[in-house]
Amino acid sequence: MKNIFKKGFTLVELIIAVTLFTVIASFSIGAVLSIFDAHRRAQSTKTVVDNLNLSIESMARNVRFGGSYYCGISSGLTSTSNCSNGGNALSITFNNTRIIYRWNGGINDPIQKSENGGSTYSDITSPDTKIQYLRFYVFDSDTGGEQPYVIAVIKGYVGNKATTQSSFTIQTLMSQRQLDI
């Protein structure tokens, strides 16, 4: 008797193979999409943190080469004021100009800078950066015998959704470069 059946796959075997391939492909595509999403979030977080670092470096440069530190908003070029309890604003005399950094206290309020003694302000942090806390602490600005310094503490987060937020806390000490003695 002659074998009339040819060797090959049955319909059931083919359906099982296609189903397994589809399941494995679905998991693989999901993993690749998750990796792309994580990369996009990491890139946006890096951009915001780089912006915040640039803002802090600008503050530090003005503190290093400036003088007459005032904890609060002062337009007087020679005004000095310590504040060990902290304040939301910092005034510095830099190149015979009063520079003011401030935060108005709202979660959507950026850190702002005025280069004309408080007449106008411009944002120095991006809208994607949500500041929750900002305090400037000024020490030894009005003693004349000690080197003045400023401590800035900034807390906040990056990201709009609760599941994609990255929080940060930055504390930096800035001191005058030239001796004020």
Automatic annotation (TrEMBL):
PROSITE patterns reported in the protein's UniProt record: PROKAR_NTER_METHYL
Keywords (A to Z) from UniProt: Membrane, Transmembrane, Transmembrane helix
Annotated transmembrane regions: 12-36
InterPro entries: N_methyl_site, Pilin-like
NCBIfam families: IV_pilin_GFxxxE (TIGR02532)
Protein name per Swiss-Prot or TrEMBL: Prepilin-type N-terminal cleavage/methylation domain-containing protein
